[in-house]
Amino acid sequence: MSPIFEPTLLLNESVCKANIKRMAERVKGWNGDFRPHFKTHQSARIAEWFREQGIERITVSSFKMARYFAQNAWKDITVAITATQIDAASINTLAAKINLNIVVEEEQTIMALERGLQHPVGVFVKVDTGYHRTGVDADDLIKIKKMLSGLRETKKLIFIGFLTHAGNTYGTRNKVQISEIVEPALQKFLALKTFLKDHFPLMQLSWGDTPSCSVYSDFYGVDEFRPGNFVFYDCMQVQIGACQLSDIAVCLAAPVIAVHPQRNEIVVHAGAVHLSKEGLELADGSTTYGSVVKLNGRDWDSEQVLGQVRSLSQEHGIISVSKQVMPTLKPGDVVGVLPVHSCLTANLMKQFLSTDGNFIEMMK
Amino acid sequence: MSPIFEPTLLLNESVCKANIKRMAERVKGWNGDFRPHFKTHQSARIAEWFREQGIERITVSSFKMARYFAQNAWKDITVAITATQIDAASINTLAAKINLNIVVEEEQTIMALERGLQHPVGVFVKVDTGYHRTGVDADDLIKIKKMLSGLRETKKLIFIGFLTHAGNTYGTRNKVQISEIVEPALQKFLALKTFLKDHFPLMQLSWGDTPSCSVYSDFYGVDEFRPGNFVFYDCMQVQIGACQLSDIAVCLAAPVIAVHPQRNEIVVHAGAVHLSKEGLELADGSTTYGSVVKLNGRDWDSEQVLGQVRSLSQEHGIISVSKQVMPTLKPGDVVGVLPVHSCLTANLMKQFLSTDGNFIEMMK
Predict the structure, then answer these.
(1) Is residue B3 part of a domain?
(2) Which UniProt keywords apply (chains A, B) (predicted)?
(3) Which of A301, A332, B86, B247 has the fewest Cβ atoms within 10 Å of its own Cβ atom?
């Protein structure tokens, strides 16, 4: 086994495949369609593990990512970032080859794209059910009905339904708090079906976010689910209560470059360009940039948390450890860091090393 | 001119070259050697703009980056991250071809590398002059003398001098505060020469960091300077007082995807995977992830700040704007975002588009 000598993103294939299988089964249990978000792994190889579970339809977060997965034989893709008229060329290239869905939230975008498109595309109207990032307010039936009248006139834009992302679940810390966000959001979302089903009987409702899909279950009336982060999970999802530490499928191998026993700190080669600067406030009010665990070759022991990453610069991470852990670490050792936000860490590392020693590539 | 339709990192070549020239002249004014840090741009093409200023010696922050620049004809490289014995193979590959300097801070690393190396390398001992990230405490003459005795015995490790990085200048907000950090740090640093010059008359002192090199001038006794960020500067450096807004050489072009006049917000396709999650506390106590400016084609007007990026998710940025600015922006427009930390933004984008329309590649 070749030793690890630089920051390397390890991937436990069994844990990852178990995460995929579990979520696929949950969605099946709700009689829902599973259209997983591929923005977390961004990898054609890992995508095939979804195909093994019967998944053919996917979600991505940019047209660039859609092009990558289309090149890798994915034929049914929703680009879940709001499209505008400047995306016409991207849409035309993709829609010539695959079944493409886009997301809109402005009436003028609908008209502009109808003029600019060469092929039919499916259209979701993005609605805001409480997160307040993007989307038409789900209560704003006047605006929504105006957009739907617009979509009745279009030949290239085919209305499919509504899409929402309750991203405010990321601020929660337990199942009760998740329910408190999900229930009113679902109520607003499902009301769209009630109000509009006479005119649009085939309307689909598409729901996102890993926290709610991991712990909530009463999704009656929702047609499609687009969680993404669950493929790897991370420390943030552990704190939300969406998973256990042992469900985290990725871990950054980080060489120890210095030890400072006088301040119970070790310094690793693992910085903002590897982990990202996403921090997480712990229960004690302190901030972590990753939980440090013991590595066993290319695998890690999530039960043995050695410390927390307390600060990051470009290439360095400073880890605080206990007096007991301090003497067990020395320069030249390699420790593991469970990321706070695996989507951002994977996006930075651009490659995984599986626990059985294979490099797995991502979109470049 | 082909329109911008996705997040694109613009680079103003004239501003960038002026930044390089100004810093090269400052260092010349101190009779110092300029060994700029290339971690900010990570680009062989931009590196050539340094060569035009007569620069032949450079600094990088990882062995991976050293391999990239060695492949691009740089023959004298300091890897300014503390090396340990697990770097022996990387050092051997590089030192066979180029003049390589490494940085150490542990006696046992010196002994282990002496056994593992095949070629001579220059060695800087990293000293901590107040930043408390890595390095031997500059006051700890006992440890330093032990390391130097070790280095007297080695045949592959050739002692060059001491290297420090006063990274705590990044917490400052004006020239006076920078001086308050730099002066005691320099005093500790220069004392090493005083104490050890009899035994090591050729000893070099190597100093880092953009804030101090941009505004401080009294570096008598320091031999070499390694600032890096100045090549692009960024909003953080503006707030520190190291540069003006008009000195920032990079700007992220960000498509507007939604407008929310009811909350004076616009949403752009520019998220944590483009800008990084580095935040900056402004004078009013609020946090920004980038200053939003008006784009003119591929150039921008740094005098016209339209708003601040207030939050980031993976692909989205939420920008707060004034009531006056709000009606001037619509979906499909493209705005500019001056990054908080250009090193991290460039590292994520992996490519620049120069204002005259050429793509400039970086290390992949």
Answers:
(1) no
(2) Lyase
(3) A301
3 state DSSP class of A241: coil
Q: How far is CA B216 from CA A261, B37, B178, B229, in A?
A: 33, 18, 8, 16
- Strands A316-321, A265-269: pairing is antiparallel
Q: In terms of domains, do B97 and B224 share one? A: yes
Mean pLDDT, residues B37-54 taken together: 98
Interval B329-364: pLDDT, tens: 999 999 999 999 999 999 999 999 999 899 999 999
Q: For chain B, how many structural domains are there in total?
A: 2
One domain, residues B223 and B287: no
User: How confident is the prediction for chain B on average, in pLDDT?
Assistant: 96
Contacts A61 to B, Cβ<8 Å: 314-315
The predicted model gives B168-196 an average pLDDT of 92
Q: Identify whether residues B224 and B255 lie together within a single domain.
A: no
Helix axis angle, A44-51 relative to A13-29, nearest 10°? Answer: 50
**Contact yes or no for B316 and A90 at CB 8 A:** no
Residues B211 and B94 placed together within one structural domain of the fold: yes
Q: Does A209 touch chain B (CB under 8 A)?
A: no
- The kind and range of the H/E element at B66 are helix B63-71
Count the Cβ atoms, other than its own, within 10 Å of residue B189. Answer: 24
Cβ–Cβ below 8 Å for A316 and B81 = yes
| Whether residue B276 sits in one domain with residue B193 | no
CA distance A319 to A291: 9
Whether A143 and A260 map to the same domain: the answer is no
Task: Indicate the residue type of B335.
Answer: V
Predicted pLDDT of residue B1: 60
- Whether residue B174 is found in the same domain as residue B59: yes
CB atoms within 10 A of CB A40: 27
Q: Report d(CA A284, CA A293) in Å as an integer.
A: 20
- CATH code, A217: 3.20.20.10
Closest residue by Cα to residue B150 from B118, B194, B104: B104
CB of A274 less than 8 A from some CB of B: no
pLDDT band at A172 (very low <50, low <70, confident <90, very high): confident
pLDDT per residue as tens digits for the range A306-339: 999 999 999 999 999 999 999 999 999 999 999 9
Within a domain: B240: no
Record: contact A90-B5, CB cut-off 8 A = yes
Residue A204 placed within a domain: yes
Q: What is the CATH number of the domain that holds A264?
A: 2.40.37.20
Q: In the structure encoding, which two tokens stand for residue A355, read together? A: 């626990």
In degrees and rounded to multiples of 5, residue A92 shows phi and psi of: -60, -45
Rounded to an integer, the average pLDDT of B173-182 is: 92
List of residues 6+ apart from B201 with CB closer than 8 A: none
Range of the domain at A277: 245-361
Last residue of a domain, one of A164, A198, A231: A231
Rounded to a whole number, what is the distance in Å from the CA of A332 to chain B's nearest CA? 5
- Segment B2-30, tens digit of pLDDT: 789 999 999 999 999 999 999 999 999 99
The interface predicted TM-score (ipTM) is 0.96
Do strands B76-82 and B287-288 pair parallel, antiparallel, or not at all (unpaired)?
unpaired
Q: What percent of chain B clears pLDDT 90, i.e. is strictly above it?
A: 94
- Neighbour-count burial of A36, counting CB atoms closer than 10 A to its CB (0-12 exposed, 13-18 middle, 19+ buried): buried
Instruction: Look at residue B131 and tell me if it is in a domain.
Output: yes
Q: Which of B209, B231, B253 lies at the terminal end of a domain, its last residue? A: B231
H runs (alpha helix) in A255-307? 272-275
